[in-house]
Specification:
- There is one protein chain.
- The termini are far apart.
- About 3% of the residues have low confidence.
- The protein is elongated, with a radius of gyration of 19 Å.
- The longest helix has 31 residues.
- The protein has one domain.
- By secondary structure, the chain is mainly alpha-helical.
- The chain has 8 helices and no strands.
- α6 runs antiparallel to α8.
Length: 204
């Protein structure tokens, strides 16, 4: 029994090691492009419903948190089904690795949002820029299991977030700050994944 448990433990460790060194292919270009479209749609919704986001920040948060939740749900569901197809028996380990890389940035974004909204309302205009910066950091952290070119959209998000903060409250809370930031960012992500998919097809 001890030998069997040791063998099973060795297999588990080997599978985890393979998952850590294998490129994750669970993200589909079309789905991630769709999440960028969600952001643009949310910008139109904000533009229509919120005349003054600084005075209606609760509504602003609801629009963008709902958009983020929808995007995560759609991308996550597709990542699970696509990973099972692409990675077969390693899919569970691959998904855990991909989530583990991005989770710290996501957690930091959620915690910062709660603290600012609850205890530092005067700084709420910083959140759109911080969200983009955290997202860029999450992509950079995930580059170990994603195509190397994913550093390009990661850099975009860092720069877009910095520009949102540098532009001041009016610019940061404009509907197009988030719409353009995430819309263009996700389009770049989708383009990188599409190029990688095409390259893999050509190699085959």
């Amino acid at each position: 029994m001890d030998d069997l448990e040791k063998a099973l433990g060795d297999i588990y460790r080997i599978r985890n090691q393979v998952a850590r060194t294998t490129e994750f292919r669970g993200y589909g270009p079309a789905t991630l492009l769709a999440t960028g479209v969600f952001a643009i749609g949310a910008s139109f919704l904000q533009n229509r419903l919120l005349a003054n986001p600084a005075e209606q920040f609760g509504g602003y948060l609801r629009i963008w948190i709902a958009t983020a939740a929808l995007s995560i749900a759609v991308a996550g569901a597709q990542a699970i089904t696509r990973s099972r197809r692409m990675h077969s028996s390693l899919s569970n380990q691959m998904i855990r690795e991909a989530v583990a890389q991005f989770l710290p940035a996501l957690g930091a974004g959620l915690l910062t949002t709660f603290i600012v909204a609850r205890f530092a309302a005067s700084a709420d205009w910083l959140l759109p820029g911080l969200w983009q910066i955290f997202f860029g950091v999450g992509i950079f952290a995930s580059c170990r299991v994603l195509p190397r070119l994913m550093a390009v959209p990661a850099a975009w998000y860092l720069l877009a977030g910095a520009a949102a903060i540098a532009g001041g409250p009016v610019h940061a809370l404009s509907p197009w700050t988030m719409g353009i930031g995430f819309g263009a960012g996700q389009a770049i992500v989708a383009a990188v994944l599409h190029l990688k998919t095409q390259g893999a097809s050509n190699e085959e």
